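Example 3.2
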Amino acid sequence: MRHSWFVRGDIDGFFGLFVDNLLQLMLIAVLCRVVAGLPEEFVTARILPGAAISILVGNLFYAWQARQLMRKTGRDDVTALPYGINTPSLFAYVFLIMGPIYQETKNPTLAWQAGLFACLLSGVMETGGAFVGDWVRQHTPRAALLAALAGVAITFISMGFVFQIFASPAIALVPMMLTLVAYASQHKFPFGLPGGLVAILTGVGLAWGLRAFGFPFFAPAAAPYTLALYAPVPVPRDIFALFSSRTGWQYLAVIVPMGLFNVVGSLQNLESAEAAGDRYDTRPSLLVNGIGSIVAALLGSAFPTTIYIGHPAWKAMGARAGYSILNGVVVTLLCLLGGITLILQIVPLEATLGILLWIGIIITAQAFQEVPKSHALAVAFGLIPSLAAWALLLVETTVRAAGKTLFEVAPAFGNDLYIHGMIALSQGFLLSAMVLAAILVFVIERAFLRAAGWTAVAAVLSLVGLIHAYELTPAGVQNKFGVAAAPAFAVMYGLSALFLVCLHVIGRAAERKDRG
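Structure, written as tokens:
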């Protein structure tokens, strides 16, 4: 049976997936400049072409994979897995790796190299996940993984951008409401237009309409767009520049959890696709997922790619394999021709932020919805380290704006703000969130021995400095690695683990007594 490469539903699916990918590319262009100090021309010429090729590789593979499944099953309703830039990793790498390095060194090249380092390691983890992903998922409570991801979603994704929305209500509030209506109510817009596209077009109309009447709510960049070809450039020297230095390795507490999220999230998305009727083999799907991130890093992009959530939604639109091809080709052409610069001159970023807000709140909501009801307590517990990291960011930003440093003002906080506790909880907060949520899951289940195992993990992580360890210096909060990096935490977690082992032993003895 011959199957069509493109069907009518591929147009609808393309617009939905393209808007999602376009938003990530716009954010890369803006955040790399604002947070990491990278020049606009550098982002356009070096980062975006690499990101485009990584997106193209994955989209073409998953389209081919869908065609193979069509031939194997004889069905013509198979939908390709959606794929693109990983949103949580984008924010984690910009705000938690590239931004801090730039603030400390004022060296944007070093910040970019650290991002490449993180992206490469993430790709290696994702590739390895093709072989061990199922084991990781079986041994890590879902609440632990989702809580850490939800913490990033509600703070670094949602909060800063919701402030930006409400700071520019004239061009951002209506698009936000349209986005919420489209996605929360599943309302269908005329002509089958995707809700995200309608929201962005509305924001563009408001921005330019108000600008025509003299209201300064939107100021497009003054520099004109110049058509040019930006070919991707391999960057082997830059990507391996930090392998022999401490600068990259000190951020393992961010890189490792995000890599795990990508692996487990991709597995969950494969399950979601299977539930919708399309069963894809795990290993090749995850291998290409990881290879895409490795390709991104080798070609200059600091941002991993991943299989997206939402396969059932694209399937319901009637999308098949063609929408994935269209998305990969259009995104690639846009980036290689410098089109993101042109789009940013036409589309105000504020008009797109409602989509980010939705992503943040849906990830947070799913963390509670997709776990047993009794584990919601563990999810809430796992949010706390991310809140501490977000609070520390606000404090540091405020202090810096006042012309001071945290080192200078920390003693003045006293008992009004336990700043040292905030810093300790923020260090390695993604790992802390996972570990603390896992401990509480097993405590809730009265599986005290497994809870003790996770508490012992916390002790080891504290001992080597992956969580809680820091030094407050005139240059800011510094990571601290080595033996006995955070000894008080290591010892107390160790004692807690012993206590939990004792509870396990007492419980087993009581069970034997009851049976006897």
